[in-house]
Amino acid sequence: MPPTVCYVVHNHPAVMPGGAETYALELFEAMRDSGRYQPVLLARTGPPVSRSGRVHEGTLLEPVAGAADQYFFHTDIADYDWFLSTSRNKDVYTRFYREFLLAYRPDVVHFQHTLFLGYDILRETRRTLPKAAIVYTLHEYVPICHNNGQMFRTSGEPCMAASPRRCHECFPQYSPQDFFLRERFIKSHLGVVDRFVSPSRFLAQRYVDWGIPGDRIVVEENGRRPIGAPPPGTDQDDDEPARKTRDRFGYFGQFTAFKGSDVLMEAMQILADRRPATAPSGRPSRARPTLRLHGANIEHQPEEFQAKFRRLLDAAGGDVTLVGRYRPAELPALMRSVDWVVVPSIWWENAPLVIQEAFAHGRPVICSDIGGMAEKVTAGVDGLHFRAGDATSLADTMERAVRTPGLWDRLRAGIAEVHPLERHVARLAELYDALRPVPVLEGSGAHDR
Amino acid sequence: MTVESQRLRRTPAVAAVADQRAGRPSVAVGRVEFACRLDETATAFTGWFAGPAIADRRSRRVAARAVSFPRPAGNEHPAGPEVCGFLAVVAGPSPEEAAVIDVAGRAVPFDPAGAEFVDVESLAWLGLAAIGPSERTAATGLMAAATELAADDFAAGRVAAELRRFRDALRERSPHCQISPEQPQGIFVDVVYRIDARRFYLRGWARDATGAEIALSAVTPEGARVELSPARFPRPDVEEFYGAAPDRRHSARPGFVAYVELPAGSVLDEGWVVELRNPAGLAVETVAPAVTRDAAVVRSAVLADLAHEIPGSDTLVRHHTYPALTALREAGGWGDAIESVTQHGTPPGDPVVTVIVPLYRRLDFVEHQLAHFVDDPDFSATDLIYVLDSPEDAAALADLAGPLQRLYGVPFRTVVLRRNLGFADANNAGASLARGRLLLLLNSDVVPDRPGWLAAMADFYDRTPAAGAVGPKLVYEDGSIQHGGLYFIRPDGAPWWENAHYFKGLHRSFPPATVTRRVPGVTGACLLVARQHFERIGGLSGTYVQGDYEDSDLCLRLADLGLDCWYLADVELYHLEGQSYPTALRRLTSRFNTWLHNHLWDERITALMKGTA
Predict the structure, then answer these.
(1) Which of A251, B266, B434, B442 is at a distance of 20 to 30 A from A158, taking alpha carbons?
(2) Which range is least confidently modeled, A132-141, B193-202, B488-497?
(3) Min distance B482 CA to chain A CA atoms (Å)
(4) In chain B, which residues have their Cβ closer than 8 Å to the Cβ of A62?
(5) In the A/B pair of chains, how many CB contacts fall below 8 A?
């Protein structure tokens, strides 16, 4: 019997799609297929993500679509303290979560996200299973930053370091003492984590700067199993029609302000303004660059951003197409319809899924020159950088991309192999083993520490 | 004889003693002065007697209950200073011939022609003039007991009316309470609940400005006085009224709740008086509102008052809530509650199992169950009983039952109850009609997964030695486990036990849940028990309120008989347990049930759980 790992995540993709949760489910399935560890998945659910609340009295569990090894964990959002990231109803941890841990007794508990779950869940894990290894993958900066975990100031620029005073400046309704207590509270619970996993060096360094011991964080990129990607070793030029110009741009992602879709549309506007309406010969100008926007949730954004978005979209005319929501299975075809994938986020980003997906489909990436984006895309090798938030810089970069002959092909050739999921799973299994000093023995029961 | 003894002979009492010693029969010195008819039920007499007890065998002796009191000094009586006055109550109408009334061992002659018959007020004023306060209390208390002599409720009512007038004429009154911040004492009765003629439950508030320990007593309309030993609780609104500082409003406990048992029944609704007395002797009294009789209202209110329990204490629940609820249940037992029993279809010849399904409001479950039973061959030979615990649905069930039986062919009986009895007694009523030797208690919201489940359970029961109760795996609609055996937990180190189900919420295939084993208890939602055991332990306990702990209580009583509970993992049924978020009342009923369960079973549960640790 292989040892057990419990994956804890803040949402299940069946309820609402999202990067981290999609990765978590893929990891769960791949770990199961590998046979190294036997996984069970615990996905938090409830408002505001799902409409329905807890179903049965006396338990917060609900099997996911009849599966025997995946559970929803219903928590009540009314009890959630957004500032401290904890549930005020401690029964969630001390009774219901504990009962689940005692039933499965996992050897490893690997947290992907604790949003809506709080940080006490780490403490309860250690208390209930003193011998289990606790691993935490950091997908964003929620422990450090109250602004949606973005490390982005409310005044609109990226933040390099948090402090009680600076955080108070972003959120005047919370005093510096409140932020001090928040930091101490969260660090106290993070103290039980045996190993943090960060998908990017950039994010790892921010956490080390914040105070996590350097030897407690390991950098390991998220493995992906992109849908429809050509199997490794296939010549990527198969089925790729040669094109004269590579001027089709694509954006993939939710339309949140942080992701910069407005910057991208402004850049398109600048490009349009630069072009004369007709060529000197009187015929219409040469092929104009086009932008296809793939994504959703514009209606959940603040009014102001929605208005700006629509205004830019309307002004763009036929150059910009709002493709809208897409299913994962449609991604390969959508990727083939664009030449460049643009990731114009104005915040740091960590290890954006979209970059991995673009590379998996042989699309060079144009992205902001900050944070995880700048780490994952190497300018001149597999993509291009522009100055974050600067629509003119982006416009220049896009123009260079279109006009420089052979650049697209060169950059496409420079795309390295995407980190395969199987290798990622093997690395994680090694990490789990290393955190549990006694190697796995067939048929053995409890392990001593 | 000496000169001294001659002088002693002068008093009638001495003479009477001498007569007795000499063996000479003689009648007591004394007589009945006034008599009063209390309807046809009893007769009250006042009078006087002197001297020690004297035997008289000639006249007809009439038994009486009596109180006596010395005549106050200065009230010269011709018979001398040893004279005592008395009040005696005799059952039945007044004797028509001369007789002797046995007044606490003394034979007092009664001559119908000589006694003056008066009404109760006159009896009080003339016959019991100038007696002291404690004697008045004794007198009214004695009279109040006359309600016990009444032949029926009508007679009791008529007697009670007389007694009320007597009480009002005789009793020592304290000043009437004025509710005002300037007054040092305040008392108010919110409610008087009647459980039965002898058992009542009061709630109100009482306050003395000195803050001293106050004594509360109640006087029934008929005159019986009873000391209250109430549970006290905070009433910040009262404290605020009396001008207490804001930080002191929650520390005082003017509120009170009191369960009382009277020596004799009280039948009048109007006229209860409650008195507050402080150690210095200052007292005020107030008239309580009319008695509330509605059993459902009383029950809800008694439960709701649990909210006043001081945290960490169980005074209220132990001395007031529990006796009141127990008495309420006794007062409304289920014995006469079966309104009708109807057979649908041909009853099975010699059924082994009786399946009892209580129905409350949701009649649609009947069709859902029958739609599964129809494909189960076991059910043509099963004694199936549906017990309707919501009588308002009787007509609807009657319309439903016949057609359903014709369509599905499964025979069953419908039992309609006269009133809502609750989970325990609805099952007990069904069990009283059972024909099988095994009983299967089944919730209406349980539906089988596959046929053959009943035979599998019965078969397991019969071949398992010392089996008391057997329960299967119950599964929610999403395939997760609702019940995998029942056990007891102390939530977060609390001093009490609560019930829990093994594996709740986990997938039905969870490996430990596939193991059949002995367990501390099984759920009442699907429970198989031999009828002989069930009857021997008295069925399900009805003292719990609204369905909680009856199943674990049953399992613990079976354990007392040396029988085991078994979880049968191979049999699975669906239990569509409703999503019911606790209302405030549900939380309080739950608290009472938890208290009662622990009060009865704490030691045994502790021993049981130690064994399974």
Answers:
(1) A251
(2) B488-497
(3) 9
(4) 478, 480, 505
(5) 54
Distance CA B377, CA B392 (A): 33
A67 neighbourhood in chain B, CB within 8 Å: 507
Residue B499: closest C-alpha in chain A: A58
Does the structure show a pLDDT above 60 at A449? no
Under an 8 A CB cutoff, do B500 and A58 touch? yes
pLDDT band, residue B3 (cuts 50/70/90):
very low
pLDDT at A231 over 80: no
Q: Decide if A344 contacts A260 (C-beta within 8 A).
A: yes
Distance separating alpha carbons of residues A266 and A313, to the nearest angstrom: 9
Beta-carbon contacts of B320 under 8 Å, excluding residues fewer than 6 positions away, are B201, B230, B231, B257, B258, B259, B302, B305
Number of other CB atoms surrounding residue B160 within 10 Å: 25
Q: What is the pLDDT of residues B221-241, one digit of tens each?
A: 999 999 999 999 999 999 999
Nearest CA in chain B to A61: B505
> For position B583, what pLDDT does the model report?
66
Q: How far is B612 from B600, CA to CA, in rounded Å?
A: 20
B38 CB neighbour count, 10 Å cutoff = 27
Q: In the predicted model, what is the mean pLDDT of residues A403-407?
A: 92
Higher per-residue confidence, B299 vs B219: B219
What distance in Å separates the CA atoms of residue B592 and residue B526, rounded to the nearest whole number? 24
Asked whether B525 and B573 are in contact (CB, 8 A), the reply is no
Q: How close B478 comes to chain A (CA, Å)?
A: 7
Among the listed residues A70, A75, A18, A17, the one whose alpha carbon sits nearest the alpha carbon of residue A46 = A75
Contact map slice: A 15-74 vs B, CB within 8 A:
54-63, 66-69, 71
Residue A102 near chain B (CB below 8 Å): no
Per the CB < 8 A criterion, the answer to whether A121 and A139 are in contact is no
Partner residue opposite B577 with nearest CB, options A57, A60, A94: A57
User: What is the Cα–Cα distance from B442 to B421, expressed in whole angstroms?
Assistant: 17
For the segment B19-39, what is each residue's pLDDT rounded down to a tens digit?
A: 556 655 444 578 888 999 998
The Cα-based distances of B391 to B387, B388, B417, B525, B546 in angstroms read 10, 7, 6, 22, 16
